């Protein structure tokens, strides 16, 4: 039986980040439904797992962790010898290889995520929720994301993946928002029109781990 | 001679995060001036160190790293046996102790930093730069930060520090923005009026490492 439980819907980009990591590491897990429409993410029991009332929460035997990128790091550390063994660097590369991944994982969290999340919300989620789009927010965040992706395009012209020759957690962490931008909005060309980012996106989105996440989203849309 | 160089002004909150970490770990370093008024952070040579043209950049012998939180993790990993040996957990605590720190370090980066940085910019930096404040942005980000700090206040009622009984990188990472909010704006009561956050702030801001950073800011204001 799986010792790992992920709490939250596969529609959530932060939940998807953790699921993709578990598939890469070949770690069995079960997915626990959190009915956000019913406010289950704000219930006292759930807040013990995730004090901010956000998804995902994560449990592995007696260990509970929140924040998707922290959960992914834990999965890579605990299950170092399983599945993809270079997702967070490896022993030979040591802390220098890990730092190369960390800097691009932080670039995702600090530079890529804010404008891409804003676009995902405005262009994909707001219409589903019956909310009005904010054209100024779309324009502003599109411009911000374009500048970030110009830096990525240069980097990915020098290197197959963000942190070097191997696919890593840094690449993986970009998949959830990128997938929605490319497949559920009209702004996918922000990625696909850039030569090197487009090549990288084709490659990283074709990974079996990510295809399994997309399949889970189809099977469990809510 | 120090093998470590930090590029950027001590006035930058992200630079301060790295300096505080170096002082905690008792790692010698030199500070290299980046004249942002002259655009040196956008020069081709600087962009080789920091492709987004932001501060800080960081160099340790042949290793270069960007993103302040990634740099701090590297310092903790490479200099594990120096200075504060529990800043990122330790061998006994293993990946579970590290995950407890990582989740609050990510909470800082994802939940605390966006609204606190916006307030720091609006209330402290915009006036210095002769820019007009945006009262709507102040109000919105104050409300966001208040909600985040309510969660922190509950956590810090159960635990001396964010990740447990020991001061860690998770606490340290909050110092730069908190220092400005408390000392350079009228919104310091967001922290100081909350019983447990206020107690924690008194304790973490009194650390000798942080006092050295504040001293560097006074000595090198630009």
TrEMBL record, chains A, B:
GO terms for cellular component: cytoplasm. One of its GO terms (biological process) is response to herbicide. Its EC number is 2.5.1.18. Keywords: Transferase. The keyword RNA-binding does not apply. Residues 2-83 form the GST N-terminal domain. It catalyses: RX + glutathione = an S-substituted glutathione + a halide anion + H(+). It is an enzyme of class 2 (transferase). Gene3D superfamilies: 1.20.1050.10, Glutaredoxin. Pfam families: GST_C (PF00043), GST_N (PF02798). Residues 94-222 form the GST C-terminal domain. InterPro entries: Glutathione-S-Trfase_C-like, Glutathione-S-Trfase_C_sf, Glutathione_S-Trfase, Glutathione_S-Trfase_N, GST_C, GST_Phi_C, Thioredoxin-like_sf. GO terms for molecular function: glutathione binding; glutathione transferase activity. Belongs to the GST superfamily. Phi family. This is glutathione transferase. It comes from Ananas comosus. The lineage of its organism: Eukaryota, Viridiplantae, Streptophyta, Embryophyta, Tracheophyta.
């Amino acid at each position: 039986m799986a010792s790992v439980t992920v709490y939250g819907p596969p529609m959530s980009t932060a939940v998807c980040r953790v699921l993709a990591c578990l598939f890469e590491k070949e770690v069995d897990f079960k997915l626990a439904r959190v009915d956000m429409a019913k406010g289950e993410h704000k219930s006292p029991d759930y807040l013990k797992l995730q004090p901010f009332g956000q998804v995902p929460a994560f449990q592995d035997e007696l260990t509970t962790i929140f924040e998707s990128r922290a959960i992914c790091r834990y999965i890579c550390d605990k299950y170092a010898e399983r599945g993809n063994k270079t997702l967070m660097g490896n022993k030979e590369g040591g802390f220098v290889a890990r730092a190369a991944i960390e800097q691009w994982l932080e670039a995702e969290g600090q530079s890529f995520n804010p404008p891409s999340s804003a676009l995902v919300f405005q262009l994909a989620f707001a219409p589903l929720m019956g909310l009005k789009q904010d054209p100024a927010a779309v324009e502003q965040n599109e411009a911000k994301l374009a500048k970030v992706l110009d830096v990525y395009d240069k980097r990915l012209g020098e290197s197959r993946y963000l942190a070097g020759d191997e696919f890593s957690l840094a690449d993986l962490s970009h998949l959830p928002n990128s997938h929605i931008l490319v497949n559920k909005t009209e702004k996918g060309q922000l990625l696909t029109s850039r030569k090197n980012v487009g090549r990288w996106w084709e490659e990283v989105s074709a990974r079996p781990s990510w295809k399994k996440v997309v399949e889970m989203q189809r099977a469990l849309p809510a």
